[in-house]
């Protein structure tokens, strides 16, 4: 810019100017340093020529700090290092300032994260690798619970959200609800457990105990709300539709409302829909009864199995599939749960008869009702060997959930001999809570086989279940069955 804009200097002749400047250069070096800068524009041109004599290079070297007296060198570090000697001193200064934590004027506590950051900004021109590393480490240690670490931690380790109560998967109007989706994840290792049973048999109670609650807890805090006394008295039904709850161990529990014998056809139809749905989307379906047994229940199970939607094939256009069609159809494990069982039902002979009866009633079913759960494995009957129940089905007995201490005392007190009055009464079975925990471990250990031809994540399962529910509702087989029953 100087060349284009200042054509006039050329008019005066360059030789004259040079001479004048040379005269000025004769003065002391300090003057040269503080000399006006407007003359500098001419200097490079002269140097480029290479025809200039020593004064030019001298002018350049004068700013070098090496020439400064030692007193000036210890002054502020703003001076830009030029020579190698000064560059060596720089790292020493850096380390000092880091260790002191911003000593010039700032208090030491504030110096850790904040002053460190501001210092980095100030010293931005000369950061070296170690400075960044040490400062980062220092920040992590000093502010371990500060604003940085939790953010990183949150993104890496978000625990699965814990459900407080069950929510609706299918509402009272038999419509699908989407709210469960937010609790589901993209992982495949989940277990789906459904329950069916007659009214008031203890479905919600058992599902709460299997999923999140302990028998000692107040029933009002159970995740699946149990029937209240008022509902019980008027013969009402607490559960409607399908309730959903997922544990942090990724077990999905589905509590349902099933009305079998007493109900109008509409209810029977709805119950069949729900049961057929459970047979398609659950790994385990618990069938609860509180007495042994109602033949209608087995008819109902048979009908639901018949109306169950067929498992969608892997690819629709697959022509020559190797397996037979029956083998590719999905059927869940069925567990018969005798709730509120009496002492007599725990009697081995009665137990055997019960197993035989269920085995005969279920003989033609494809549902996996035997071979996956055993009371004999739980050390409930220590004297019985495995062969005792040759027709063993997946059956489990839960006693009455009574006030155990009270019950034991009354029974023991009724004995005639004074010695026996000190002993607890004979119950004939383990305690309710011990039975529940045995049942839970048996259920949770059941095989998590594939529900469909593709491996489902929790979220995939949700979409799959929604599709199956839609299919069940529109099922022509179900509507035809209802029409024939009418
Ligand atoms: P609904 O058909 O209305 O949904 P449900 O089958 O879910 O009812 P719950 O509401 O769980 O049944 O239980 C009905 C009643 O039976 C409750 O008062 C509950 O406390 C009681 N109950 C459940 N299991 C037992 C048991 N083993 N011993 C004693 N009482 C029990």
Automatic annotation (TrEMBL):
Keywords: Nonsense-mediated mRNA decay. One of its GO terms (biological process) is nuclear-transcribed mRNA catabolic process, nonsense-mediated decay. It comes from the Eukaryota. Residues 1-127 are annotated as: Disordered. InterPro entries: P-loop_NTPase, SMG9. Residues 37-51 have a biased composition (Basic and acidic residues). Belongs to the SMG9 family. This is Nonsense-mediated mRNA decay factor SMG9.
